[in-house]
């Protein structure tokens, strides 16, 4: 019956027109019925017919017509009504004047509203509320509060409507004290218990300050409706506590309340934020049960929820079930692809959207630009979208301009970003901030400072995010003074030091080596949030304080719930320290907190990297196998792990399997696999991979890839080829390329070439202390002590200091650190006693201290003293004292491991029957029973085919001419240059690998020695090289 009545009443406006009935009562009844049905369009249509017939509405109906005008923003119609009744008795009716006030307020004409309000002589509480709520709705919050005070001076008592408006104004103004006074007024006058709207307003007000107070208000409410529950659930969601929002929703269902569409929308969004896919599926079932599955807002939220939880398949299935897809739904599906990193699929869906005739909007373009920014090859597509926007005539408002600006900034296209900025009409603070940040990230400090000044000249008020962008340009120890001046500017100009700005300032001070100020800012921040904790932990890690990062994490979990970013940062700390026990604890913590942390492939990738860099590739492989979804980062981490452990063949196999799984390698993948080839000496395979980058995968090699190839060629002994490769590079080689070449010169004691390479390095990085140290070590190894002293003088003049070598070992989650000659450890006496016993024992079975690794011009006895107190040896002795027999000993070194310590470790492992794992700055050395996984490649270089065997040693002497006896025929000078490095390499290898019992190898070694001895007459570098090896040569009696 109700439906049929409704239908008949909707047709009633036509009846009087057809019969020309002019009875005002009939028309007034029709309009009242339309008002009950909330059909504003029908109200205005009926009023138009009344005007045509000359029928006037009565004083009770006219406010309903004005209300419909306000709802439909029919400004001219409302003004005409006001004009028509201006000189009638109707204008004297307080209800009509109140309706006019409300109409003008809702249409944004506050001055007209205030004029009508002031002209009302007998204003009642409803009139005052209309004006107060009008000010609040138009964001004139101070005027609303002042008007309420004026109302009370006229002896009118506020009611619940007044209180709701005032609480909204106080919330927007963050006036906690005044809001509390209004709360007290509501309690004293019984408004809190009599009207649930007051309680709902109090919940919304307190949620801006402290959700715990909102919860107290909610729990004390006698009358609760669905709006109250929605306010509470939304409050938790808005402050980032999605888990509590979901718990409250469950309680609401238990209490028997039926959710509405708003409830379901917020709950689905909470599932997306909490990362709970299982609960999200259950909520989806409730959406269907309560028949909200055709509400496009909720469908969009479900698409987003599945996307954020990595379940792209469910997003696609849901998308297919919606017959009428508007542009918002397409945008939601594209966003789901973005969340899952499926960039190619997103591009395909965008093309399909256009082919189906759905016109994209600005939101679509903004989402697509975000996808471009995350895609390795997205710059070209992004430029295409930019051209499409221009060609289609789409209005380029500030939001779209900011999206374009952000895309170009992410690709470091500063010139294009500036052009977009210059073409924007009225750039806002976000525009200025984005461009400043782009300049800062590209190291353009001067331009950052200039743009910051221009921003103020254009009278765009800098905000806290402007300062954050500016601070990004000043993040090293040379910028402390500038950083302090920026901090002073913030204080002087009263810029709100909110949590993000406080975090950025603390980060700046930490990076500028002012830890005390950074810590003070962090501790004094009144509203430290999760981001603040994460940023502080990250700052400790970036500034080489991983131990403090771990301590801060343990303190954090007692105050704040960590998220996936926290876990990734803390795992990075464990990785820096090679703290495997602590890493396992974090893994267990993550497993226990699965509901809170949810599905996140990035955590799996971080665990994989941690295990690989903490020496446990078996655990890394287990994590990889158990990943529900493997992205390109997962494969890259596995390949890099195999590479640093010297498992080149496994790295190449993983590279092939990755492509079989349908993933294309990226530029990062090639860095990992080329590095793996370098660590394992796979020169030919390295060349194949390098050429395939451009030919097969359309990836232009970058400087880092060239550096990998130089390292591969140099360490493999192909020095001439490496130099030619550098000289033929299409891009300018940077310091990393030349440094790889200098490292190769160290392996083969190429003094002359090392000098040339070092000069290139000094041009690029004049303050690179590591380069001076590396050349000094090359000179020291060749016995050129005068050159060593010159370099040390240069270091002193430049104020540069060599970073101290440190080795550490983790025992029961405690890090024990040692430096050379260190006696600060509580067990120092036991350590040195153990070390002395070990050294004596292994010397008896064949260990000979290699004094070449003492890089000081001192006597043999003092050289041995220095060797026997190296940090690696101290850490090994400590590990043997404090660990059980079955476990490997994991030692970490901040620099490259000393060659003598490497040999020492091999002999110790053989003597005590323990596996020793050394992690240095470049790779892992797994030493078992006297053999190392690196096969001494890092120290001595590889033969051309990557394997040590007798045939390769014989081939190494090819081209050296001997007569019938053992006397060397004098070679030409160019032969000395071309063959000298090969003979040195062979000679060193044969000396160290004395276990090879082969008469031909020994004969070849004698030939190499004879050749070097002859070459030394005309080559000081060779002579120096030979003199440092002659004692070993005679000791081993080859």
From TrEMBL:
Residues 846-938 form the DYW domain. PPR repeats lie at residues 124-158, 225-259, 326-360, 428-462, 529-559, 631-665. Keywords: Repeat. It comes from the Eukaryota. GO terms for molecular function: RNA binding; zinc ion binding. GO terms for biological process: RNA modification. This is DYW domain-containing protein. It comes from Tetracentron sinense. The lineage of its organism: Eukaryota, Viridiplantae, Streptophyta, Embryophyta, Tracheophyta.
